[in-house]
Amino acid sequence: MKKIIFLLINILGLFNIALFGQEEPTDFLPADFHKERRDAVRDMMPANSVAVFFANAQRNRANDVDYIYHQDPDFYYLTGYKEPNAVLVIFSENQKGSKGNTYNEILYVQERDPKAEQWNGKRLGVEGAKNKLGFEMALNGKEFQDAPIDYSSFDTVLFFDFKNDYRDAQGKADLFDLIKTFKEKANYPSNYDATKQRLYSMVKSTDIQNSANVAQTLGRYLNYYEDLKEDALLTGFVNADDDKVRDEIKQKVTMELQGNNLNSAALSEIMNTLRETKTQEEMVLLKKAIEISSVGQIEVMKAMHPHMSETEIQGVHEFVYKKYGAEYEGYPSIVGGGNNGCILHYIENNKPEVGNDDLVLMDLGAEYHGYTADVTRTIPASGKFTAEQKQIYDIVYNAQEAGIKASVVGAPFQAPGQAASKVVTEGLMKLGIIEKEEDAKIYFPHGTSHYLGLDVHDRGTYKPFQENTVITVEPGIYIPEGSDCDEKWWGIAVRIEDDILITKDGPVNLSALAPRTTEAIEATMAKASPLDEFKLPQLD
Ligand code: GLY
Ligand code: MN
Ligand code: MN
After folding, report:
1. Which of 303, 342, 452, 482 gives the lowest tally of CB atoms within 10 Å of its CB?
2. Angle at 456 between CA 451 and CA 458, to 5 degrees
3. Which atom of ligand 1 is nearest to the CA of 446?
4. Is 63 left (phi over 0), alpha (psi -120 to 50) or beta?
5. Which atom of ligand 1 is the closest one to the Cα of 472?
6. Residue 37 DSSP code
7. Are 320 and 373 in contact (CB under 8 A)?
8. What separation in Å is there between the alpha carbon of 135 and the centre of ligand 1?
9. How many whole angstroms from its chain centre is CA 65?
C-alpha cells in the first residue's frame, strides 16, 4: 500500500510539473560557468592577494518604492547571484579554516527573512547559494563583520573603488555596512584617491630604461586629471630631465606606497580581459537576446503607420521582448521620429504622432538572462523612403557594410570606425552636404563600435580583435533642422546598428534577421500585422 501511495505522489508530482511548468526559467548560466570564471580571475590575481567584489546598490525611487534591482554585471558574471547586499571574496591561494578546512572563496549573501520575503520576494539565502549557485562556502552577510580575513596579511587587496552612491538602509548587513566593514578592516584611508594610487603604481613599476616613455604617458594623464598636477612626485616625474632624477622619484613613490596594499585598478584589467571574449554558454544567451530584438524590429516594421506615437512604437518592441521571456531592456529604449532621431540617446520617446514623412530611428535591445542586444533600425513611417531619405540611408548602409567587413581577428579596435567614417565622409561630400572632410563629424559625431555582452557598452581591452568577441557596428548620419546645408536634408536621421560576432572565419552578423536594406524594409512594412486588428476603446 505504502508503495502505491508513494507511486501516486510521484505521478502527481510529475503531473504538477507538466501542468504548471517550472517555477522559473531553467536556462540561466550554469553554476559551473560562474565557478570557472572565478577560477579564471584567481589565475590572473597576483600571488598572496585577495579580491573583494560588492553587489550593486539597491536604489530608492521614492518613499518605500525602490528602482527595480539589477545586479552589477561583474558580480553576476562571477556568482549568478541576483540579489543586493552581498560580497564575494576570492583568495589567490587556499586559506585554512578554523576547523582545518581549506577554501579559496566565500560568498556572503542576504539572510533569509520570511517577513521581508513576503513583501519583496524570495531570497536565495545561504542554502540556495550552496545548492543552486554551487558555492562551497556561503555565509550570511552579517558574518562578514567578524570574518577572520586579515587584509594586512596580503600583499595586495584588489577591489573596485567606491562611487559612494549607496545609502544606509535598515538592517545590519546592507551594502553600506558591508562596505564600512571592508573599509575599516582593510585600512582604507578616508582620503583614498584611486587615480593617484594607479599613477603611483605605474611609476613604481617603471623599468628605468623606459622611464622617459612612461613620463610622457603620465604627462597625458595629468593633462586629463588636472587635480593631480598638484602632486609634486607625479609632476616631478613628468618634468624630470634624465633617468637618474626619475629613478629617485620612483624610489620616493615606492616608499609612499609601502604599507599600502590596496589596489583598485587591477580588477578592471582582469575583468576587461575575461569579459571581452564570450564563452559558448554566454553566446547562447547573447544570441537569444539579439534574435528577440531582431524579431521586435520586424514586428514594428509590420505594425508601423503614421500617427503612431513614439511610446506606442517602443511598447510594441518591448511587448515582443516580454513575449520571449526577456526580463528587461538592456538600456533605455530610443525611439525618435523625424528630428528627434538626431538626439543620439533620445529616451523621452514622447512625440504623440510620427509624421507621414518622418523617418523613425529605433535603437533598442532586449536583455535576456543578463545579456543584452543593441540593434538599431531606421524606417519610414509611411512605409516608403523618400528619395533624400534613401540617399542618406544608403550612405549609412554602405558605411556599415565597410565597418562590418573590417571587423576581423587581429584588426585594431578602431578599424570598423575608420572604414565607416571614410564612406560617410565621401558620401556627404558627394551630396554637397559638407565641403571639407573634417566636417563629417558634424553629422556623424559618435564612434562606430563598442563591445556587447552583459553590458550594452561592455568591458574589453580595446586591443586588436580576438575570436569570440561581439561588437556593434553602428554608423549614423544626423541632420538636425537648421543645419548648414540644403533644407531638403533637414530632419533626416539614420543609424543602422548590428551586433557582430568576430570569428576566425570572418564577421558574423547576429542581428541579420532584422531587415536592413531599404528594399527589405519596405517589403516587410508592406506586410500585415496582427496589431492591425488590435483596437482599444477611445478614452476621453
Ligand atoms: N544603444 C546605445 C548605443 O548604441 O550605444
Ligand atoms: Mn550601440
Ligand atoms: Mn544602440
Report:
1. 482
2. 40
3. 5
4. left
5. 4
6. H
7. no
8. 35
9. 25
Q: Which residues pair with 376 in a beta bridge?
A: 363, 497
What is the C-alpha to C-alpha distance for residues 423 and 399, in angstroms, rounded to an integer?
5
Distance between CA atoms of 50 and 80, rounded to whole angstroms? 20
CB neighbour list of residue 145: distance below 8 Å, 6 or more residues apart: 173, 177, 181
- Grid cell listed for 121: 520576494
Atom 3 of ligand 1: nearest residue by CA position: 374
Q: Tens of pLDDT along the chain (540 residues)? A: 445 544 444 554 444 444 456 789 999 999 999 999 999 999 999 999 999 999 999 999 999 999 999 999 999 999 999 999 999 999 999 999 989 999 999 999 999 999 999 999 999 999 999 999 999 999 999 999 999 999 999 999 999 999 888 989 878 899 999 999 999 999 999 999 999 999 998 999 899 889 999 999 999 999 999 889 999 999 999 999 999 999 999 999 999 888 889 999 999 999 999 999 999 999 999 999 999 999 999 999 999 999 999 999 999 999 999 999 999 999 999 999 999 999 999 999 999 999 999 999 999 999 999 999 999 999 999 999 999 999 999 999 999 999 999 999 999 999 999 999 999 999 999 999 999 999 999 999 999 999 999 999 999 999 999 999 999 999 999 999 999 999 999 999 999 999 999 999 999 999 999 999 999 999 999 999 999 999 999 999
Three-state DSSP class for residue 361: strand
Rounded to an integer, what distance in angstroms lies between the CA atom of residue 369 and that of residue 325? 9
Q: Which of 346, 456, 473 to mutate to test the pocket of ligand 1 (most atoms within 8 A of CB)?
A: 456
* Angstrom distance (rounded) from CA 37 to CA 460: 16
**pTM, rounded to two decimals:** 0.93
Sign of the CA dihedral 290, 296, 297, 299? Answer: positive
Domain ranges of the chain: 2-185, 194-259, 277-525
User: What kind of architecture, by CATH, is found in domain 277-525?
Assistant: Alpha-Beta Complex (3.90)
Sheet arrangement for strand 156-159: 138-140, 102-109, 87-96, 49-54, 156-159, 262-263
Residue reference for cell 547586499? 85
